[in-house]
Each structure stands twice: as structure tokens, then as C-alpha cells.
């Protein structure tokens, strides 16, 4: 297919495709003339992944390039690819100091040990959890800190389902792609579902009647 069809198939404008080609996020097509090239299904697949990482995951072009380098590594390991991407997903929380931050750091390390999670306590997701717990402590919301175990139970269940779904009857390329896309879009789904559930729980708690729809 030519670039115009590639654009139509993926919803990515031609100028953006050309930009991704220049940045090395998309492999070049097969040259048929100095100004023409043909693209195939692998370009459609890669372009959709890049679009997900940039538009939904909000990764920078440099971060996307790092993730794709891990995806394309000759001896790719899903764990390494996932770590590469999680290190760049953000948000990156500045490290604080003081007793509350030290307590939060200890809480996270104990959480990982207690649950037997094989995760680095100094990786970005762990540091984000430290920042969240420390900030809650600074705000005096220890009631919300107590929810960490509930959230951990839910997160563990979701993670097991995610991994099982991704690796079942899949080749390595599909596993790696699933880990990348599933993490980016899966987090978006979880956040959206949690907010919808919050609306429902709050409406029920305060007796809000939504049966009449939005027009009333």
C-alpha cells in the first residue's frame, strides 16, 4: 500500500507518518522510486502502536523510541520491555524528604516483601506509590493510606488476568506488543472505570436518582 492508504488505514495524517519515519519510529517502506514507497501490514501494526503510545500514553517521541528499541531487541524479554515502558509512562514524582517520606518508603518496601512481588522498590511505579503515601500522610489522610492493601489486592488480580491474556497462545512479538499496548490502554480503562464507579457509589450514597437520564 502507498502512504495515503496507510494513513487511511490507521487514521494517522500523512505529515505525521512522515515525521515518524524521520524520527525512526516507523521502519521505511520498500522503495519503488526516489519519491515513492510501499508499506505493508507490519507498518499498519507499528503505526497503531506508536499512535497509542503517543496519543493515549502521552509518551514523548524519545520515550517511544526507547520503548520500540526494547520491543525490537533481538532477544526481547517481555519483563524488560514492560520495565522500559513503565520507566517512561510517568508521571515522575519529585522525591521528598523527612520522616513521612521515610515512612512511606518503608511501607512500600514492606508491601512488596509481604506480598512477594518481584518488583524493584526503586523503580518509577514504586517511587510514585511512595510519593502518594507520603503526600496522604502530609494531608493527614491516614484513612486513605489504609486502602493500599485493598488496592493491592485489586491490582494483583488485574495483573494476573492481564499477563495470562497476553501470553496465551501468542508468539513473542505478540506478547511484547500486548504488554506495551495493554499497559498503556489498560491503565486508561482502569482509571475510567474507577471514576465511573465513583460516580455510581456517590450517587447511591446520597440518593441521587439518575433513572431519568441527563435531560432532567
Descriptive account of the structure:
This protein has helices at 3-10, 14-22, 41-56, 61-71, 78-89, 99-115, 124-138, 142-145, 148-167, 172-205; strands at residues 30-33, 36-38. Helix 3 packs parallel to helix 10 (172-205) and helix 5 packs across helix 10. The protein has 10 helices and 2 strands. It has a two-stranded antiparallel sheet. It has 216 residues and is mostly helical. The chain starts with a helix and ends in an 11-residue tail after the last helix. Helix content is 68%, strand content 3%. The mean pLDDT is 84.
Structure summarized in a few sentences:
A two-stranded antiparallel sheet has the order 1-2. The protein has helices at residues 3-10, 14-22, 41-56, 61-71, 78-89, 99-115, 124-138, 142-145, 148-167, 172-205; strands spanning 30-33, 36-38.
Q: In oligomeric terms, what are we looking at? A: single chain
* C-alpha geometry: globular
How would you classify the helix and strand content by structural class?
Answer: mainly alpha
Percent of residues in helices comes to 55-70%
Mean pLDDT: 84
Q: Strand-and-helix sequence, N→C? A: HHEEHHHHHHHH
Q: Give the neighbour order of strands across the main sheet.
A: 1-2
User: How many strands?
Assistant: 2
Radius of gyration computed on alpha carbons:
21 Å
Amino acid at each position: 500500500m502507498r502512504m495515503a492508504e496507510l494513513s487511511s488505514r490507521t487514521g494517522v495524517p500523512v505529515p505525521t507518518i512522515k515525521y515518524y519515519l524521520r524520527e525512526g519510529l516507523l521502519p521505511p517502506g520498500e522503495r519503488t522510486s526516489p519519491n515513492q514507497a510501499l508499506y505493508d501490514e507490519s507498518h499498519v501494526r507499528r503505526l497503531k502502536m506508536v499512535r497509542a503510545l503517543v496519543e493515549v500514553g502521552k509518551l514523548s517521541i524519545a520515550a517511544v523510541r526507547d520503548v520500540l528499541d526494547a520491543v525490537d531487541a533481538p532477544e526481547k524479554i517481555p519483563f524488560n520491555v514492560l520495565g522500559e515502558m513503565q520507566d517512561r509512562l510517568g508521571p515522575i514524582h519529585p522525591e521528598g524528604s523527612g520522616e513521612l517520606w521515610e515512612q512511606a518508603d518503608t511501607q512500600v518496601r514492606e508491601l512488596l516483601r509481604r506480598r512477594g512481588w518481584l518488583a524493584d522498590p526503586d523503580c518509577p511505579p514504586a517511587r510514585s506509590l511512595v510519593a502518594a503515601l507520603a503526600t496522604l500522610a502530609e494531608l493527614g489522610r491516614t484513612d486513605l493510606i489504609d486502602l493500599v492493601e485493598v488496592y493491592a489486592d485489586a491490582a494483583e488480580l488485574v495483573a494476573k488476568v492481564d499477563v495470562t491474556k497476553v501470553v496465551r497462545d501468542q508468539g513473542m512479538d505478540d506478547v511484547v506488543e500486548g504488554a506495551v499496548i495493554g499497559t498503556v490502554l489498560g491503565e486508561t480503562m482502569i482509571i475510567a472505570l474507577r471514576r465511573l464507579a465513583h460516580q455510581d457509589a456517590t450517587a447511591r450514597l446520597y440518593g441521587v436518582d439518575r433513572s431519568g437520564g441527563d435531560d432532567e
